[in-house]
């Protein structure tokens, strides 16, 4: 008989959990919620610069700018800021987060999704709250927010919901679990950080292999297969809702630096294969020894720019060098390179918590092997993948042969798997200990062994910290700048020793609390509350090292985009041209806020444009700058903030000759010495063109209408000619029209558009209307409607139908 609905039992506990999560979020992000402050997130500020033209066009017209000229001469807007009206999943996120502002909403939804996972396992409300804190306040979740990786954060946040639906569907109620899985995967894909989704899929793959083995062993494969088919349908729906975003991304990927290069020659670090360059992808590899930061946060010094206080050795060393106290304090408080690990730089360590590590080890002894097998395997895989070039035999094999793995960079991010699996196993261990203490053989002994292992590591580091060298790759620069390097290394040692002792204390307190519970000295309620408080204090304090109230400011965006003298000077020219910011052209999207930029900031720029940067723009090839219609250069010199680029060719021009080449290599090399105003370099193997010479001074051509998705030119030519346009060639969406009739256009000068045109007065138009966007948006709309109907139906059917549980699923 189905138990009757009871608000106090079925709803109130979850309401309390939501209130607790809201309080935690409000306290941590009080500057955002109550003081109208914001975080100066580097990547978000760059995003706002790169997306300005797109957003302005949307506000002005209500249409989507699927292309933008604001960065890298022009590129699709899909991975910058494109809305898909057919995708309704954004409304789900707003509901689940109560439409909280960014940052606060990120952590709140992380807490909610972790809570859902643990409740789906059958844990009590209070234990699930403790677990949600352990999942959510892992240091990496806060560090990536400080850096501005908001979409990465949200993609990670929904991973526990995906696992919740998967486990609930396979182990308990198929229909409710499938509905939860569909919503979780939909939201995970919605934020389009495919690298994080990829890591999640690796974990799901491991989980699936373990489930198949157990199903075969226990004769439940038919039931597993049936449930798997339902989950497959749910996955198809989730992909369908996000199809527009995924389809356009997949289409563009082949043209980006993550696609296959057309070059056969090595090109300044860019891979000539299909995917990223190996060195580029593995540049951020976690050190093998650095893995201990999961247990001891500042083992390797924490951040590449961390402040010190007046008790530090470095402060005293500056005083001894003759600095005034105020000056010494200012130097050490502004941040020093205290990180001494193998990565080029870091914003902070991945710290899952000393108590979580202790409970994780305990889980190896007491949690059922069906759980530990895939959670431990996922943790090991996560750590090994994060080692990158520091464990090259395995990771280079993965990069070269595992599907799609070579599309992703910064392999240290693979630790997101561990920050899911380690708290999960830790909470399973705590749950097992609290619910089955009288059934587990030698539990007190296993508790002491687990505490001894983790606390012992901390004690050894605390005692023998002085045996490490603490030398960093940045030390030589510090020595040249006359910084007291010995004092800085002494502070690195002090940080290691201090955090080792800190983790030791938390482990001892947690183990002691659980030991007293085993001996009936404290109740289960008190044990849960105590563990929750210890975990919160442990993680919260470390998080505040990297994201605290002092990091929030007012008017962040307005201040960052305050027009400079150079901006004001350039903006007096209202014609259509491009700008290059010489001090930092290819790692800067601030310029794009006001100008059409030759440079920009984006992790997936077009590969051909990257080739052009490497071979020509970075070497100041004036002809290439002229053909890109680069009219102004921002110099960074206060005495002469703006410099005119000599003779930019404008938006379009007629050339006198075609220089035929036979390959991409020849095409790129031909730009080294050529007259861009007179010659068009064309790869005739891709774009056959018979005519080689045209009349000099054939006529005039000018741009009369500009929109991101639409360009209109008027020209008058005495004879047939070849017009070259200072616009990036992209065949998947741009269609040319001559006097309103569709015509073909070709690629010239490696990246630009060109077209043979007849004599006389005519108009030329370019429209960007990619079929992938229209088709993708339509499928997204249909799938959104189906998802809504299927989820409602599945929940209704799942509640009405008594769930069929798969055998031996109750064990933890």
TrEMBL record:
Descriptive protein name: Membrane protein YfhO
Keywords linked to the UniProt accession: Membrane, Transmembrane, Transmembrane helix
Q: Which organism is it from?
A: Pontibacter akesuensis
What the entry lists under Pfam families is as follows: YfhO (PF09586)
Is Membrane there in the keyword field?
A: yes
- InterPro entries attached to this UniProt entry: Uncharacterised_YfhO
Which parts pass through the membrane? 12-29, 98-118, 125-145, 151-169, 197-216, 228-247, 348-367, 374-391, 411-434, 446-465, 500-518, 525-542, 779-799
């Amino acid at each position: 008989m189905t138990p009757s609905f009871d608000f106090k039992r079925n709803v109130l506990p979850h309401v309390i959990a939501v209130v607790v999560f809201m309080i935690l979020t409000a306290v941590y992000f009080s500057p955002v919620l109550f003081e109208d402050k914001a975080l100066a997130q580097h990547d978000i500020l760059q995003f706002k610069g790169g997306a300005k033209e797109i957003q302005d066009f949307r506000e002005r017209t209500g249409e989507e700018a699927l292309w933008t000229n604001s960065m890298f001469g022009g590129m699709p807007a899909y991975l910058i800021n494109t809305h898909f009206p057919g995708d309704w999943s954004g409304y789900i996120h707003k509901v689940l987060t109560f439409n909280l502002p960014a940052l606060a909403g990120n952590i709140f939804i992380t807490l909610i999704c972790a809570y859902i996972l643990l409740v789906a396992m059958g844990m009590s409300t209070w234990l699930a709250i403790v677990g949600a804190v352990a999942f959510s306040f892992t240091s990496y979740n806060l560090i990536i927010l400080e850096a501005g990786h908001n979409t990465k954060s949200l993609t990670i946040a929904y991973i526990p919901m995906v696992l919740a639906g998967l486990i609930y569907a396979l182990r308990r109620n198929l229909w409710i679990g499938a509905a939860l899985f569909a919503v979780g995967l939909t939201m995970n894909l919605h934020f389009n950080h495919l690298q994080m989704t990829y890591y999640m899929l690796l974990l799901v793959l491991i989980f699936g292999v373990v489930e198949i083995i157990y199903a075969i062993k226990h004769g439940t494969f038919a039931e597993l297969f049936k449930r798997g088919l339902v989950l497959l349908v749910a996955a198809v729906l989730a992909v369908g809702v996000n199809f527009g975003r995924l389809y356009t991304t997949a289409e563009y990927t082949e043209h980006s630096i993550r696609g296959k290069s057309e070059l056969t020659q090595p090109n300044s670090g860019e891979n000539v294969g299909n995917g990223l360059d190996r060195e580029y992808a593995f540049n951020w590899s976690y050190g093998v020894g650095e893995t201990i930061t999961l247990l001891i946060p500042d083992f390797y010094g924490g951040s590449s720019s961390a402040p010190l206080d007046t008790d530090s050795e470095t402060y005293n060393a500056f005083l001894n060098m003759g600095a005034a106290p105020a000056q010494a304090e200012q130097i050490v408080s502004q941040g020093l390179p205290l990180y001494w690990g193998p990565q080029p730089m870091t914003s902070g360590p991945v710290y899952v918590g000393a108590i979580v590590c202790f409970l994780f080890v305990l889980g190896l002894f007491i949690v059922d092997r069906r759980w530990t097998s895939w959670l431990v395997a996922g943790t090991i895989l996560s750590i090994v993948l994060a080692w990158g070039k520091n464990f090259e035999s395995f990771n280079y094999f993965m990069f070269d042969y595992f599907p799609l793995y070579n599309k992703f960079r910064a392999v240290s991010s693979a630790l997101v798997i561990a920050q899911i699996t380690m708290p999960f196993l830790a909470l399973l261990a705590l749950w097992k200990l609290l619910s089955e203490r009288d059934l587990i053989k030698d539990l007190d002994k296993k508790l002491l062994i687990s505490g001894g292992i983790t606390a012992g590591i901390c004690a050894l580091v605390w005692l023998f910290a002085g045996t490490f060298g603490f030398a960093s790759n940045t030390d030589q620069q510090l020595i040249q700048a006359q910084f007291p390097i010995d004092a800085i290394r002494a502070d690195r040692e002090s940080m290691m020793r201090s955090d080792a002792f800190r983790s030791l204390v938390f482990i001892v307190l947690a183990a002691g609390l659980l030991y007293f519970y085993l001996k009936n000295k404290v109740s289960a309620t008190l044990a849960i509350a105590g563990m929750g408080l210890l975990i919160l204090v442990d993680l919260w304090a470390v998080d505040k090292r990297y994201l605290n109230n002092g990091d929030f400011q007012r008017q962040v965006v307005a201040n960052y985009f305050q027009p400079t003298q150079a901006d004001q000077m350039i903006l007096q020219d209202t014609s259509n041209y491009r700008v290059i910011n010489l001090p930092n052209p290819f790692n800067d999207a601030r310029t794009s806020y006001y100008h059409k930029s030759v440079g920009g900031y984006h992790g997936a720029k077009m590969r051909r444009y990257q080739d052009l940067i490497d071979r020509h723009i970075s070497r100041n090839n004036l002809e290439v700058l002229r053909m890109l219609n680069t009219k102004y250069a921002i110099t960074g010199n206060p005495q002469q903030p703006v410099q005119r680029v000599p003779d930019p060719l404008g938006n379009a021009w007629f050339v006198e000759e075609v220089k035929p080449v036979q390959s991409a290599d020849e095409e790129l090399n031909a730009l080294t010495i050529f007259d861009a105003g007179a010659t068009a370099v064309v790869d005739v193997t891709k774009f056959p063109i018979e005519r080689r010479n045209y009349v000099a001074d054939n006529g005039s051509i000018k741009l009369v209408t500009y929109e991101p998705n639409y360009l209109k030119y008027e020209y008058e030519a005495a004879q047939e000619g070849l017009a070259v346009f200072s616009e990036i060639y992209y065949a998947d969406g741009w269609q040319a029209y001559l006097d309103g009739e569709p015509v073909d256009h070709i690629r010239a000068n490696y990246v630009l558009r060109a077209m043979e045109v007849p004599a006389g007065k005519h108009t030329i138009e370019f429209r960007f209307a990619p079929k992938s966007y229209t088709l993708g948006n339509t499928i997204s709309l249909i799938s959104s409607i189906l998802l809504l109907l299927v989820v409602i139906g599945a929940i209704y059917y799942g509640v009405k139908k008594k769930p069929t549980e798969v055998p031996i699923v109750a064990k933890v």
